[in-house]
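Suppose you are handed a protein chain with no further information: no name, no annotation, nothing but its sequence. What can you learn? This example shows the usual starting point.
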Amino acid sequence: NLYDGISLLLEEEKKAGGAKAASADGPYAAFLASLDEVRATQPQNLCAKYLTTDLFNSFNDEQKAILEQCARTGVENPSSALGCYAMTPSDYDVLNAFFDPVIRDYHGASADSVHITDWDASDVGENGVLDMSKLGLDELSMRVRVGRNLTSFNLPGAMDQAERIEFEKTMLTAFDKLISMEEYGGQVYSLTPDFGNGEENPNKITEEEYQELVDAHIMFKNMDDDPYLKSAGIAS
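A reasonable first move is to predict its three-dimensional structure. Written in structure tokens, the prediction is:
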């Protein structure tokens, strides 16, 4: 890929006597050179647009290591529109100088706009109830993918196998409560092979169930096939 190619070129330049130039940005020289290339050729890539060398070098060594991990997917996948993923909830604060302009650009928000969370749906339909039949539509089905994070865990890109299993176990308590409620119910289909140390996963989906849900367009795509998520460490 582009990142590896530039790393190889810099290494060859170093061998040829260009060590001083190649090491100007230390261990991140190849990374920053790749960002420059992506910025010049892929203007839609927001990660490359805002992560300039000057901004990158304004962070300390520990923050640089985290930021490189956050931005790697945007470098390895130049066609990305966003190109970055936070690794921990605190990244949005510690690396705010990078994430804030990226997020505002992505959502078309002004520099002084403030996000307001509003769960009031009373103005939807009639007192919060949208009767599709009144719009001339038959009964519809829909699927909703909900992504949520827990403050006591890293975000997916920084999670190892053990933490992912612990996260799933933590969520099972909440799912059990929903399943026990008549108005919700449902079933857990888990893609986790097992819980480690010989502990079986009681909710592991079978191959037959998996294919049935795929055919019904209920099961989402295999994230391991997504190069953007693989570069970010979210799927591996």
